[in-house]
Amino acid sequence: MQPLTNILNLNIEEYKKLFDGIEVIVTDCDGVLWVDNEPIPGSAEMINEFRNQGKKIIFLTNNSTKHREHFLIKLNRLGFIAEKQDIVSSASIVVSFLKRKGFNKKVYLIGSTGLARELKDAGINHLEIGPDVIIHNNLYKTVDTFHADPEVGAVVVGFDEHFSYVKLLKAASYLNKQSCIFLATNKDERFPISSKIVVPGTGAIVKSIETVSQKAAILLGKPSSYVVKTLVDDYGVQPMRCLIIGDNCKTDILMGSRSGLKTLLVLSGLTKLPEVEAWKNSSNRDDSEFVPDYYVAKLGDLVKFVKKVA
Ligand SMILES: [Mg+2]
Fold first, then answer.
1. Residues 291, 249: contact at Cβ < 8 Å?
2. pLDDT of residue 1
3. InterPro entries attached here (predicted)?
4. Which regions of 139-213 does DSSP assign to beta strands (E)?
5. Residue 96's beta-bridge partner residues?
6. Ligand 1 geometric centre to CA of 248 (Å)
């Protein structure tokens, strides 16, 4: 089957062939299951139906600001059958990465409470989060009074609304040590909150620290291959037997294409069909990685179809 097929156009044999080979459904959350706090009609019914048919479901989000408990409450409230271990966030991938490395030092954390709690739950010590500003409006005094904690062995960066010059100074100073690990939960440039105000995202924070430290952060959220590594190592997922559902071709679909997962784009979120058609017809070979195998207007549109072919 050629990429970019409307999944509703498959015949019964094609559909069965596709889904008989799928053991795990990995679904993005925002733009697929809901938009902010509004559920997308039919998504819960479809995900639960996949589960009824014996598929393992993994909810995958790049959002590091919230603890997985928060996502679990939201999923259950919106009608999704889910348990905490079914949720993989960029914060939980940070934990998994550090655990795999046998990390036993402290983290200098630029982030918010969700990420801090995930580290704490895993027994990984971190320095305090929250506001950290210039002392008495005096940079020299601030520099003089900063005593780097020798126990810090990693700088972890997620979204932090209290990001400041002082945090930049401290992060870069810790990264001066050659052995210090530098991790980023995602590199999203902006939040799509307002059409008038530009709201900087984690990517802006990561880039400023990369500039000063002259080091590149290891990206752990989508589209990083570390996400797939986590799914394989921690969840026993076989990429070839996995379908990823997402609304963002530059994260969800790109990661799936690069790692050999089947990919399904829903048009209920960020990426629109004309963009995908342009990538499909592009002469730049890299653009083909943004093109999903299948697409559908919204996940709930599959419900009737799936029940018909079941
Ligand atoms: Mg999304």
1. yes
2. 60
3. HAD-like_sf, HAD-SF_hydro_IIA, HAD_sf, PGP_euk
4. 152-157, 181-184, 190-191, 199-200
5. none
6. 6
pLDDT tens figures, 207-243: 999 999 999 999 999 999 999 999 999 999 999 999 9
Asked if residue 272 belongs to a known ligand binding site, the reply is no
Tell me which residue has tokens 């019914």: 45
Distance in angstroms between the alpha carbons of the first and the last residue of the chain: 21
247 is in an annotated binding site: yes
Centroid of ligand 1 to alpha carbon of 140 (angstroms): 43
Neighbours of 173 (CB within 10 A): 18
Closest to 69 (Cα-Cα) out of 55, 51, 78, 82: 82
Question: According to the annotation, is 188 in a ligand binding site?
Answer: no
Catalytically active residues are: 28, 30
Tokens at 16, concatenated: 């069965």
Query: pLDDT tens for residues 82-105?
Result: 999 999 999 999 999 999 999 999
Residues bordering ligand 1, an ion, CB closer than 5 Å: 28, 30-31, 247-248
Residue 286 labelled as part of a binding site: no
Q: Which domains does the chain have, with CATH numbers?
A: 7-62+223-309 (3.40.50.1000), 92-219 (3.40.50.1000)
> Percent of the chain, pLDDT > 70?
99
DSSP per-residue letters across 217-237: PEE-STTSHHHHHHHHHHH--
